[in-house]
Amino acid sequence: MTTDMKKHEEPMSTATPTRAPHSDVPTGHRPAEGRVGAGLFDPGQLLKSLPDAFRKLDPRVMVKSPVMFVVLVGSVLTTIFSFKDPTDWFGWAISAWLWLTVIFANLAEAVAEGRGKAQADTLRKAKTDTVARRLSGAAEERVPGTELKIGDLVVCEAGDIIPGDGDVVEGVASVDESAITGESAPVIRESGGDRSAVTGGTKVLSDRIVIKITTKPGETFIDRMINLVEGAARQKTPNEIALNILLASLTIVFLLACATLPPFAEYAHKHLTMVVLVALLVCLIPTTIGALLSAIGIAGMDRLVQRNVLAMSGRAVEAAGDVSTLLLDKTGTITLGNRQASEFVPVRGTTEAEVADAAQLSSLADETPEGRSIVVLAKEKYGLRERHQGELADAEWVAFTAQTRMSGVDVDGRKVRKGAAGSVIAWVQQQGGTVAQDADEIANRISEAGGTPLLVAVHDDQGARILGVIHLKDVVKEGMRERFDELRRMGIKTVMITGDNPLTAKAIAEEAGVDDFLAEATPEDKMALIKREQAGGKLVAMTGDGTNDAPALAQADVGVAMNTGTSAAKEAGNMVDLDSNPTKLIEIVEIGKQLLITRGALTTFSIANDVAKYFAIIPALFAAVYPGLDKLNIMGLSSPDSAILSAVIFNALIIIALVPLALRGVQYRPVSADKMLRRNLTIYGLGGLVAPFVGIKIIDLLISLIPGIG
Amino acid sequence: MSPVLAGVLQLLALIAALALVYVPLGNYMAGVYSSDKHWRVEKWIYKGIGANPDTEMRWPAYLRGVLAFSAVGVLFLYLLQRVQGALPGSLGFASIDPDQAFNTAASFVTNTNWQSYYGEQAMGHVVQTAGLAVQNFVSAAVGIAVAVALVRGFARARTGELGNFWADLVRGTVRILVPVAAIAAVVLVACGAIQNFSGIHEVGQFMGGSQQWNGGAVASTEAIKEVGTNGGGIFNANSAHPFENPIPFTNLFEIFLILVIPLSLTRTFGVLVGSVKQGYAILATMATIWIGFTALMMWTEFSHHGPAFEIAGGAMEGKEVRFGVGGSSIFAVATTLTSTGAVDSFHSSFTGLGGGITMLGMMLGEIAPGGVGSGLYGMLIMAIIAVFIAGLMVGRTPEYLGKKIGTREIKLAAMYILVTPALVLIFTAAAMALPTPQNSMTNSGAHGFSEILYAYTSGANNNGSAFAGLNADTQWFNTTIGLAMLLGRFVPMVFVLALAGSLAEQKPVPATAGTLRTEKPLFTGLLVGAILIITGLTYFPALALGPLAEGMAS
Q1: Which of A203, A520, A539, B163 is disulfide-compatible with A176, CB 3.0–4.6 A?
Q2: Taking CB atoms and an 8 Å cutoff, what residues of chain B touch A592?
Q3: What is the spatial order of strands in the sheet that A187-190 belongs to?
Q4: Pairing between strand A406-411 and A396-398?
Q5: Does A545 carry a binding-site annotation?
Q6: What is the C-alpha to C-alpha distance for residues A314 and B425, in angstroms, rounded to an integer?
Q7: Which residue, B111, B87, B163, is CA-closest to B375?
Q8: Inter-chain contact A677–B394, Cβ cutoff 8 Å?
Q9: What is the CA radius of gyration of chain B?
Q10: Going by C-beta distance under 8 Å and a sequence separation of 6 or more, which residues neighbour residue B79?
């Protein structure tokens, strides 16, 4: 644990948001270790949060955590009883450690919140009071940004801070969104389409846009973000509430066990003091998880924030752990954004090298990614040196355009062209040539395999003819297959969503290793798919950015909207990815799972701890009246007082010791539920049984060294 | 053959016999509760009580059925005892005092069968047969009905309906308890248990003096007493009495009867939820605890040192010579791990630790395998708690058998596990804090405390066995134990049925590779651990001052 922690340790700074560097955004497979779980923890933060921990002693705050509230009441009681008998060092020592137990619990929460506060401060700086240039009719008036209403039109020009959330209705501009995303490269925002949303607090760098305000001041994205990272908007999640109920009921059970003990003990001629009873109670109630529960929740949200994902509700983070179906957009998530040339297929009578040469030559004037990939393939596969346009002196270049869908070159009386099948065939026929029969067959074969065929043609002294076909295909991102295998082992089904025809979709789905695909997908199809999965009891996660994704995003249990998307999409989803990286959906699921595992692991640990504490305290209390019970003192603790005190000290220290784990989350590996349970039960179940035996014994040894005690 | 070997062989024979009937009986019971046909005799009963067995009930209606039926049972039994003196066939016994009548009525309706009276000196044939024996059947049937309702909660989806209480009650009685008890009674009669309605006989003793023997419908009462995990015998000596339990074979047979329905119900559960493996996992959990406790009990009873023990081959005080240490140990564990409370030996005379094992068995909530029905639902509640705590460790919000364990479910389960510890501890503390209740103790010191702790543990958990020694026929004990029995039976049932209703409304979550596999041995181990730690540890301080203090002293 310690070594692992060191690895991820980074100094915290209040000046910059603590988020992962952008190179950290996964583009493919990375080693399992550290993919999630790389939360930050700095011991110095403990000290810094100490004042907050004291502030949280307010009973009105404490009562929200029933377990720790009981400890607080216990601390007060033991302190009062210590004042009654001020010479009793034992009462004072127990009181002190009980107070420390409460402080440690508050400290855990304060540290977790502190990390968000630093980020909120940065955001607040971005939210300076802006003056909006509101349009009324054709006239422009200057009003404070806080007076804007939904539907107002405002103008922003280069240098202006955008006064509120809205959609661009006129113009194009480059916008600096670093205040929110931490990404310094400007982004383009334009009216219409899926890149129309702008966020208040970001800065226009060039041009002029007209924005229609879509959010009330005070409820803007940046406001919500501040609330979120500060934890002000934090509500307990359903599972957290349920766990709190269980912990409260265990607390009541142990309260009963301790409260009923005095009459039993009196009968045995043993008087139990209030200090001892409170010590026993605090050791038995699940203080470890009670102290760390809210810190775990806050840290879970924070881990998402570190990955530039804003969860609008804690419920969504929990739901992410439960997701059993992932809808993934093909482009950008599963495949690289662009298709790439993968082979050159000659028609009868030509050679592959001839096709490669002509394809390269004709693609030099094609600056599209597809065109570049043809040049690269020819170079890599056929050793054809990339020629530059300047090398060929009297060449006449035909650049690729969306209209002609063809590029090429006329040089030395030879005309070479490559492009979409229809365009090239038309060109050959226009040049008076004939189209080889097998060209059509090859093109069809490539289509069926899920690729895109481009024809290569030449017009030279042998006339105009087709030389061959370039096979363009979607390239599945590296490591995706392994990722999907992992997801399958975790019990998550992946569905690829694509606008491609079913043939193409099937080929890519097979190559990428997804479980299912939805081809020629319309927003309605997506919606229907989600509803179908949900009807079977499954939880669905998806990403989306367009306005027509909004209904599906709202329907999905976890809907991650891309920050580049429309405000409708952002409004509909329950998470926003500031990096707009759809692959992150997988990580979101893993973070959700990690949050739940951490909660379960610490609960198990906390409850398993009780066994050892009984073995420490019961013989200490009763061996004097029933000497046989000393056989239960299997740890061989030095004296009754020391035994009880050691248990109380262990109980307090274990909280602080587990703060890093609570904040970082337990290590998570994508394996089956069986393996995960076995592993975690061994570590936290058995570990929880054994650890306190060792810990209490060590503390007892140390205490027995103090002169006058033991 | 050494007594130890004899004990082990008896245990093995018992396991083999239980294994043999597990599948057929479990499947048969599943059929009983899912069939849509009514037997003719059942139709008569429905007509008689004016119930429509074909309407589906939501949980509040089902609960109203349970409570109304039981309330009528308590009232009827109370009045029957109060007028006994005026009834014919009462062997001349007088009417029972109000506090004892209340205690006994509560006791038999709650399937506890705590007896603060001496059977052969207080209850005549009418009360025994028309009152107590009837409750032996129907209180058991109520328990199974509630368990089946919970199982339906798991098995059904998108409905709040849990079946029909009256149909479940009548079928459980007519199709399961009556036939099984009838067969068992014949076996017992064949082995020497008595079955008659004769009066009291004066019999001269070898050593001079005389003894009174009564007759009674002993074999039939004995059969349902064990099959329905009731435990209330006709004679005060209970199954130690030769008329109830004449020979070693009947002893083993009675243990078999105690365990057979609670264990086989796990099969019924598996069949009804559509996965017999889930039933096996619950069975394995119950069997692990039961066999573990039995082994511990034999070990502590056999290994006890001292001249008297060594001559007798173990701690023989309070045990019948014909059953020996082995047979008595197996019986004691089976009766306290179920809600039976029948005894063939005196738990008070067991070694200190042995007495502790009987108490711990009850304190675990009697779930391994527990009372008929109540054992299954108690175990399923613990499974829910275990799933909730450890299930998170697979990275999903907890679910059991395809149902999410959310806030509402955990709230009900948490309240369920609060009830009995609260009753046991608060009543015991009250008895120890007040001056008079301690006058009922026979022993002083840790053993005396055990007598009172045992009484409330037995009452609140609806076991009914006594530690012997405690004079429980006082107003204080009759009233408080009576209340403990009623609250310990029906308050948990409220939570179980509410939980069943909540589960039945959910839509099921399909199992994937990411789902916690609750049919695996790993989960069984986890469940055993959760039961021992969460329920067992609650009582650790109390146990330390009673049986542990005594057992560790030597």
Answers
A1: A203
A2: 395
A3: A187-190, A172-176, A203-204
A4: antiparallel
A5: yes
A6: 39
A7: B111
A8: yes
A9: 22
A10: none
CB contact under 8 A, B537 and A318: no
3-class DSSP state of A366: coil
Which among B390, B402, B549 has CB closest to A600?
B390
Please give the residue of chain B at the shortest CA–CA distance from A599: B392
Position of tokens 């990722």? A483
Low-confidence ranges of chain B (pLDDT < 70): 304-305, 554
Report the alpha-carbon angle B331-B131-B176, nearest 5: 60
| pLDDT-flagged residues of chain A (< 70) | 1-42, 126-129, 182, 194, 231-234, 337, 386, 388-390, 393, 708-710
pTM of the model: 0.87
B417 closest CB neighbour out of A249, A608, A672? A249
Residue A92: CB atoms within 10 Å? 17
Res A144: pLDDT: 84
Which of B396, B446, B553 is facing A321, going by the closest CB pair? B396
Distance CA B124, CA B130 (A): 10
Find which of A244, A258, A260 to mutate to test the B interface (most B CBs within 10 Å of its CB): A260
Query: Which helix H or strand E contains A209, and what residues bound it?
Result: strand A208-213
Task: Please indicate if the annotation marks A423 as binding a ligand.
Answer: no
A16-47 pLDDT tens trace: 333 333 333 333 333 333 334 334 566 777 88
Active site residues of A: 329
* Structural contact between residues A508 and A379, judged by C-beta atoms closer than 8 angstroms: no
Q: Name the β-bridge partners of A396.
A: A410
A402 is in an annotated binding site: yes
Residue A412 makes CB contacts below 8 A (sequence gap 6+) with: none
Angle among Cα A558, A560, A566 to the nearest 5 degrees reads 135
For strands A414-420 and A452-460, give the pairing: antiparallel
Q: Do A607 and B426 touch (CB under 8 A)?
A: no
Q: Which of A594, A626, A673 sits opposite B516 (nearest CB)?
A: A673
Query: Which pLDDT score is estimated for A128?
Result: 62
Q: Which of B216, B221, B223, B218 is nearest to B253 (CA)?
A: B223
Whether the Cβ atoms of residue A242 and residue B410 lie closer than 8 Å to each other: yes
Give the helix/strand (H/E) hosting A673. Answer: helix A673-680
Contact A268 B552 (CB under 8 A): no
- Residues A107/A46, Cβ–Cβ less than 8 Å: yes
For the stretch B447-505, pLDDT in tens is: 999 999 999 999 999 999 999 889 999 999 999 999 999 999 999 999 999 999 999 99
Closest listed residue to residue A115, CA positions, set A17, A9, A24, A21 = A17
b vs e for B384-395, b when ≥16 Cβ sit within 10 Å of the residue's Cβ? bbbbbbbbbbbb
Q: Which residues of B touch A271 (CB under 8 A)?
A: none
User: What pLDDT, on a 0 to 100 scale, did the predictor assign at position B209?
Assistant: 80
* Residue B256 neighbours by CB under 8 Å, 6+ apart: B14, B17, B18
Residues in chain A within 8 Å Cβ distance of B397? 238-239, 318, 321-322, 596
C-alpha angle with apex A677: A313 to B370, nearest 5 degrees?
A: 105
Contact A672 B513 (CB under 8 A): yes
Nearest CA in chain A to B518: A674
Phi-psi region of A19 (alpha: psi -120 to 50; beta: other; left: phi over 0): beta
Paired with A493 in beta bridges are A325
Determine the Cα–Cα distance for residues B299 and B31; give it in Å rounded to an integer: 40
Q: Are A554 and A304 within 8 A, CB to CB?
A: no
Which residue ranges form the domains of chain A, and what is each CATH number?
43-114+230-302+591-704 (no CATH), 148-216 (2.70.150.10), 326-334+477-578 (3.40.50.1000), 342-472 (3.40.1110.10)
